[in-house]
């Protein structure tokens, strides 16, 4: 026998002396000793036993090797797949195997390219051939194999173009919403026409208002006199109906409705045929007043100046393609409302002349609804002032119940900045107590006319269109603040900011703003507060489908 020692290879050589030949085995298991012996030694079993042991050892090793390869090879395959795919796409590098640095560099390069593009003027946006969608952007980048800077440039322009379209759509939607507020619903036209027809054929619709037995109340100072200047029949009916239904003593109220010649007939017909639901109502047309020629001239001058201010404001907006300074959208568009030129709105400054025999009144706009008894307003001490109005807000010292002076006036002009403070709250109109006796002892109406003439000499640049700005100037220092719960305004805006508990507790809700409750664009959340006082059982209301 001979013995070979090796660290990595064992050789087994078996000789069969019985004529069976010889067998040669190689094993890689690190066998260090092999014994070659005569088969006769050990009763002929030594040589054959050594070879059998070597064979069994080699089989187990091969099986183990196959198992290891079966586990390792799939991982190797996946690894090579990642290498091939990420190299072909030239993207983020070998993320799983140390590609983080490449990702960071590409991210920095993309950021730098976007910043550089932002600094440019964005030329090419809107030009012929510009991209219109993200799909087109992907196709452009794929076909032309743009680099990352080109990708950033095109992406930036596409995003700016999309942003411009979104802003333009929002702007136009806002303008159209305001234009919708200028119209009169078909149902209101229908109501006026049917009442006018009824006036001509029905003697009851032409009955005297108020009845002869109630005429003395029209000037009796012991009654609560409410004045409404309007050309809207339905709105006037809601104001009076809501006031009467919430009054502790409805018989103490006397309503004076002043309207234009066109609306006088249907207005008279409505209250003549619905007199049972109203205590005392006087309907008077402007054509029935016999004013001195001097007053007529002043009224015409007043209207002409207001028209000039309105036309200038309109032309400025038109020249700027209805572009607005941030935060001035609503007041700029609302100033274009035709109601800013309505005669009835501007005649408030002449109320002492309209009612020379009255001393104290409450003036209500036609877009209000009353929810509480108003009787205590006539007992309010105005402390020598002429008008009582809500100045402070329910939301505290940091906000106003309506708008601030800077929303109405041009404080860059010295005439305005020397008379008003821009951050002061403007008092609310729409529900006001007027001491007409104290008014007649002042020069408020003359001051109003003087401010109008100053506006003309200043190039019509002192304030925005409307009757309220010169009224605020004329009544400066003559206003008594009322409790904020008397008057909550702003219900005609796109979004109502007043909490529900404030709306419920308010004495008067004012739908100031474009979205009047009788329009389709009105806010459905608060519209029902107004519609519950519409006389839905009235024949003409049903025929004209007003409740629809």
TrEMBL record:
Predominant subcellular localization, coarse grouping: Golgi
Subcellular localization: Golgi apparatus membrane
Topology of this chain in the membrane: Single-pass type II membrane protein
Keywords: Cell wall biogenesis/degradation, Glycosyltransferase, Golgi apparatus, Membrane, Transferase, Transmembrane, Transmembrane helix
InterPro entries reported in the protein's UniProt record: GAUT (IPR029993), Glyco_trans_8 (IPR002495), Nucleotide-diphossugar_trans (IPR029044)
Listed PANTHER family: GALACTURONOSYLTRANSFERASE 15-RELATED (PTHR32116:SF30), GALACTURONOSYLTRANSFERASE 4-RELATED (PTHR32116)
Transmembrane intervals: 62-85
A Pfam entry, by short name: Glyco_transf_8
Family: Belongs to the glycosyltransferase 8 family.
E.C. no: 2.4.1.-
SUPFAM superfamilies referenced in this protein's UniProt entry, alphabetically: Nucleotide-diphospho-sugar transferases
Pathway info: Glycan metabolism; pectin biosynthesis
Top EC class for this record: transferase
Name recorded for this polypeptide: Hexosyltransferase
């Amino acid at each position: 026998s001979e013995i070979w020692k090796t660290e990595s290879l064992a050789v087994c050589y078996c000789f069969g002396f019985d004529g069976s030949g010889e067998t040669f085995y190689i094993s890689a298991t690190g066998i260090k000793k092999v014994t070659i012996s005569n088969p006769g030694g050990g009763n002929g079993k030594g040589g054959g036993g050594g070879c059998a042991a070597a064979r069994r050892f080699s089989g187990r090793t091969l099986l183990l090797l196959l198992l290891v390869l079966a586990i390792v090879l799939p991982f190797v395959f996946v690894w090579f797949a990642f290498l091939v795919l990420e190299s072909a796409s030239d993207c983020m590098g070998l993320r799983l195997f140390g590609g983080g640095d490449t990702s960071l560099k590409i991210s920095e390069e993309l950021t730098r390219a976007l910043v550089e593009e932002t600094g440019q003027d964005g030329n090419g946006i809107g030009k012929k051939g510009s991209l219109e969608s993200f799909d087109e952007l992907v196709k452009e980048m794929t076909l032309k194999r743009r680099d990352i800077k080109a990708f950033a440039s095109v992406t930036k322009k596409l995003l700016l173009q999309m942003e411009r379209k979104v802003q333009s759509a929002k702007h136009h939607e806002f303008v159209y919403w305001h234009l919708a507020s200028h119209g009169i619903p078909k149902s209101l036209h229908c109501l006026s026409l049917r009442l006018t027809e009824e006036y001509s054929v029905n003697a009851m619709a032409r009955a005297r208002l108020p009845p002869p037995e109630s005429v003395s109340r029209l000037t009796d100072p012991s009654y609560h006199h409410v004045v409404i200047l309007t050309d809207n029949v339905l709105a006037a009916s809601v104001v009076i109906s809501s006031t009467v239904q919430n009054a502790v003593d409805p018989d103490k109220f006397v309503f004076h409705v002043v309207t234009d010649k066109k609306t006088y007939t249907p207005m008279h017909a409505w209250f003549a045929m619905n007199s049972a639901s109203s205590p005392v109502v006087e309907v008077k047309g402007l054509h029935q007043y016999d004013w001195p020629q001097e007053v007529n001239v002043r009224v015409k001058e007043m209207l002409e100046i207001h028209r000039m201010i309105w036309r200038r404001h309109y032309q400025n907006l038109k020249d700027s393609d209805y572009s607005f300074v941030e935060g001035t959208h609503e007041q700029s568009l609302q100033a274009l409302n035709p109601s800013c030129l309505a005669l009835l709105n501007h005649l408030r400054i002449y109320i002492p002349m309209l009612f020379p025999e009255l001393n104290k009144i409450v003036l209500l706009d036609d877009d209000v609804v009353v929810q509480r008894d108003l009787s205590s307003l006539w007992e309010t001490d105005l402390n020598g002032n002429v008008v009582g109005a809500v100045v402070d807000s329910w939301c505290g010292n940091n906000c106003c119940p309506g708008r601030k002076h800077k929303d109405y006036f041009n404080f860059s002009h010295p005439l305005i900045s020397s008379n008003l403070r821009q951050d002061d709250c403007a008092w609310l109109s729409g529900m006001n107590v007027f001491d007409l006796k104290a008014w007649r002892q002042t020069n408020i109406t003359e001051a109003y006319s003087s401010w109008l003439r100053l506006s003309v000499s200043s190039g019509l640049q002192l304030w925005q269109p409307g009757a309220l700005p010169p009224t605020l100037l004329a009544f400066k220092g003559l206003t008594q603040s009322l409790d904020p719960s008397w008057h909550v305004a702003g219900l005609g805006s796109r979004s109502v900011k007043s909490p529900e508990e404030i709306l419920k507790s308010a004495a008067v809700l004012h739908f100031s703003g474009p979205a009047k409750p009788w329009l389709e664009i009105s806010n459905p959340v608060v519209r029902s507060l107004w519609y519950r006082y519409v006389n839905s059982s009235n024949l003409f209301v049903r025929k004209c489908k007003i409740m629809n």
